[in-house]
Amino acid sequence: MRKQALEVSTECELTAAFDLDSAALAKLPGHVSVFKDAEQLLKSDACDAIIISTPTHFHKDLALTALENGKHVIVEKPMASSLADCEQMVETAKRCGKLLTVGFNHRYFAAIKEVKAAIQSGALGTLRYVKGYAGHTGLSEFKSEWMYDKDKMGGGTLMDNGIHTLDLICYLMDDRVSDVSGMISTKTWQLDRTEDNAFVHLRTQSGIMGSLHSSWTEWKGYHFCVEAYGDLGMARAYYAPMSSTIITMDKPGGQAHKKRNFYIPAIFREKFKGWQSTVVQTFVEEFHDFVSLANGGPAGAIATAQDGLRSIAIPNAVYESDRDRSVVTVL
Questions:
Q1: How far apart are CA 174 and CA 90, in angstroms?
Q2: Ranges for the GFO/IDH/MocA-like oxidoreductase domain (predicted)?
Q3: Residues 292, 300 contacting (CB under 8 angstroms)
Q4: Distance in angstroms (rounded) separating the CA atoms of residues 149 and 294
Q5: Is the peptide bond before 298 cis (omega within 30 degrees of 0)?
Q6: For the CA atoms of the chain, what is the radius of gyration?
Q7: Residues 80 and 127 in one domain
Q8: Which of 61, 94, 67, 62 is nearest to 306 (CA)?
Q9: How many domains is the chain built from?
Q10: 208-260 pLDDT, tens digit each
C-alpha cells in the first residue's frame, strides 16, 4: 500500500527498493533501483528517505543505518521492539540532523480529523478525558508468527492494534502523559508473555485522563473507536465503517446539539476497492506532512519520533504496572 501511495503522491516518488520477495521487486518500474540487500540500499545515494516496513525487531538497525547515511526515515508502527531501541533511534536522528517519523496513519482518517477539530476549536469546552477501544479476532488476523512473538514484536495487542488507538488518545489529549497504570490478560490465546487483552489508564501533566481497552478477542471483527469528552460536549470517531458524532452544549448540562457524519464516499470506495483504498489515501497525506517537516515546514498530523517513543513507553509501563500492581511514572 505504501507503493500505491507513492504512485499517486505529488510529494514523493519511489526511486529504490529492497525486498526479500524477488518476485515483488521484479514487478517494479524500470526506473526504480533494485538492491540485493538492505544495507546496500541504505548506504546508496539512490534516495533521500527510507520507509521501513519490516518485522519490528529489524526496525532499529535499519533506521540507524539509514540515519547515519544521511537518510530521513519513516518507520512503520511499532517503532521498535523495546524502549531502549526507540531511545537509540531518537538520539541518532537528533545527532545526524535527520527526520524520523512513525507510521501512525490513523491520524489521517476523516473521522479523527473531525474529532481533533472539535477539540481545537473549543466546541467541546475544556477537554477532560479521552477513551478508546481497539479490537480484532486475534490469531486469525496474523500472517506470520513473529506478529505475536513477544521478543520480536515487543508485546501483544497493545503493540499491535492497540498501539494505533493509544497514539490517537495521546494525539487528542495533546499533553504529556505522566502516570500510567493497567492490567493485561494472556488467558484466551495463552501465548508466551503476549497479552490478548489490555486495559490502560493514563493521566497527563495537566490532569486530562485517558483510557484504552485493546483486544484480540473481538469476535465481531476489526473496529476501533475514540471518544473525547469536554465540559461542553463530546466527539466520537468510529471505524469501520467510518463515522463521527459531535455533541455540543452552550453550558455544562445544557441542551445538547448533535451532529453525525457518515463518510459516504469513503464507505463506497471501500466497498468496491477494499479498506486498503483508505489506507493508501492516509499514506499520501502522511507523505505530504513528512516532506513539509523535512523541509522545515509544519508537521501537520504526522507522528514524530517523540510520539513513537511515547507509544512504546506506555505499553512498557502497563506491563510494569500489571506485574507490580502500581502506577508508573513516564518521564
A1: 20
A2: 113-235
A3: yes
A4: 34
A5: no
A6: 20
A7: no
A8: 94
A9: 2
A10: 999 999 999 999 999 999 999 999 999 999 999 999 999 999 998 889 999 99
Look up the pTM and report it: 0.95
CA 321 centroid distance within chain = 22
Helix count and strand count (H, E) for the chain: 11, 15
CA dist list (Å): 324 to 236, 287, 321: 33, 41, 5
Neighbours of 262 (CB within 10 A): 11
56: nearest Cα among 145, 171, 169: 145
- Residue 177, Cβ neighbours under 10 Å: how many? 21
Residue after which a domain boundary falls, among 45, 80, 102: 102
Sheet strands (E) in 186-222: 197-204, 209-215
CB 16 within 8 A of CB 32: yes
pLDDT score for 30 = 87
**Of 63, 107, 56, residue with least CA distance to 77:** 56
Residues in the chain: 331
Domain, as residue range, for 48: 2-102
Residue 268 neighbours by CB distance under 10 Å? 11
